[in-house]
Amino acid sequence: MDFSNILIKWYLQNKRDLPWRKTVDPYQIWLSEIMLQQTRVAQGMPYFFAFTKEFPTVKDLADAPEEKVLKLWQGLGYYSRARNLHKTAQYIAYDLKGVFPDSYKELLKLKGVGEYTAAAIASFSYNESVPVVDGNVFRVLSRYFDVETDIALPSAKKEFTALANEIMPKDNPAVFNQAIMEFGALQCVPKSPDCTNCNFNESCAALQKGKVSQLPVKSKKVKVTNRYFNYLILEDVLGNTLIQKRTEKGIWHNLYEFPLLETQSVVGFDVVSKRGREELFPLYTIIGIEECSEATVVHKLSHQHLHIQFWKVKVKEKIENGINAEKLKTFPFPIVIYNFIEKQEINC
Predict the structure, then answer these.
(1) pTM of structure
(2) Rounded to whole angstroms, how far apart are CA atoms 192 and 121?
C-alpha cells in the first residue's frame, strides 16, 4: 500500500464531520476556505453557518452592505479577508452572472484567492487534479519524505507542490487533498505528534531519523511591532458617545473605533488629558477624564502587538450625532473594542 492509499484510508476513518465537506458548491467551499485562512476550524465554524444563513447565495453576499459583512465577520480577524470576500462576491454576481470560475487558472484571477484557495476550490468543487499546499501539507510532506527545504523560501512552494502532485492520485484529487490536510490537522500536528499511533510510523523518514521535531524547517521570523493605543470614550449628558470609521489602509480598515490617541509608549493621565483636549476634543468642555481599567489590554495581531488603554471623557455639551449604547453595538468593531463594549466597561 503506498502513501496516498494509506492516507486516504486513514481519512475515511477519521475525518471530521464538517459542513463544507458535504457539498461541491463552489460558493460554500470558497467561503469556508477564506474563513479558515489563519483560523482554526472550531473558531470558523459558527461564522460559516452565520454567513450561509444570512447570505445563502453569492448574490445575497454581493448585495449586502459592506458594514453588514464586516459586522458578521467581527471577531474572526484579518478583516481584509472579509472585504475581499465581499468584492469578489460582487464580481462573481454582477460580472460573471453568478457563475463561479470552474478551473484553477480562472479561480486564481479572483481577488483574495491565492494558489492554495484556488487549488482547494478547483479540486473540491470540480475534482480538478491540482494539489493543495498549506501549512499542514508542508509539515506532513517534509516529515514523511525528510525534506529539509526552508518553507519560508519562495521556491519551497513550488518544490512541495511538485511533490504533492507526484503522489496525488489523479482520479481522486479531492479526497487526497482533504486527507493530507486533515492528517496534518489531527495527526501530524506541529508539536508532540503521536507518532506511536500513526499509520506511517514504519515508513516516515523523519521518525526513523529522529527529526520529527526539526521539520518542517522555517527560518524566517516575523518582526513584531509594538503600538500603543489610547481610546477616548466621550460621554455627554445623555450618555451618548462618539465613534469614527478607520478609513486609512492598514489594520481594521473600514471598522469603527472610539477617538484614538496613538502614543510611543504606555502613557498616563497627564499625557492623555493634555493631548485629548488639544488634539481630539478642542470644541468640547471636558469635565472629567478617567481610565476605565487598571491594566493595559494587549491585543496580539500577526505582526503587531497593540497595547490598548480605554479612557472615559465626560463632556458638558451634547454630542452632535451622538451614538447611544444600544445603537453602538450594531456597528462593526475590532473584537477587542467590541468586547470592551459588551462588558459595559464604557460605564466605568
Answers:
(1) 0.90
(2) 31
First-to-final CA distance of the chain: 65
> Which domains occur in the chain, in start order?
3-214 (1.10.340.30), 225-347 (3.90.79.10)
**Which residue type is seen at 226?**
N
> Cα–Cα distance between 156 and 150 in angstroms, integer?
7
Rounded alpha-carbon distances, angstroms, from residue 104 to 90, 128, 133, 182, 325: 20, 8, 14, 21, 47
Measure the CA–CA gap between 91 and 104, rounded to whole angstroms: 17
| 106 Cβ contact partners less than 8 Å away, ≥ 6 residues apart | none
Long-range contacts of 73-78 (CB under 8 A, 24+ apart): 73/47, 73/332, 74/332, 74/333, 74/335, 74/338, 75/335, 75/338, 76/35, 76/39, 76/43, 76/44, 76/47, 77/38, 77/39, 77/301, 77/335, 78/37, 78/38, 78/39, 78/302
- What are the grid coordinates assigned to 118, written together? 484556488
Burial class (CB in 10 A: 0-12, 13-18, 19+), 65: exposed
pLDDT digit string (tens) for the chain, length 348 residues: 589 999 999 999 999 999 999 999 999 999 999 999 989 999 999 999 999 999 999 999 999 999 999 999 999 999 999 999 999 999 999 999 999 999 999 999 999 999 999 999 999 999 999 999 999 999 999 999 999 999 999 899 999 999 999 999 999 999 999 999 999 999 999 999 999 999 999 999 999 999 999 999 998 777 899 999 999 999 999 999 999 999 998 899 999 999 999 999 999 999 999 999 999 999 899 999 999 877 789 999 989 999 999 999 999 999 998 999 999 999 999 999 999 998 865 456
Helices (H), the chain: 3-14, 26-35, 41-54, 58-63, 66-73, 80-90, 104-107, 115-126, 135-144, 154-167, 173-186, 205-208, 269-275, 325-328, 335-342
Catalytic residues: 33
Rg (CA), the chain: 24
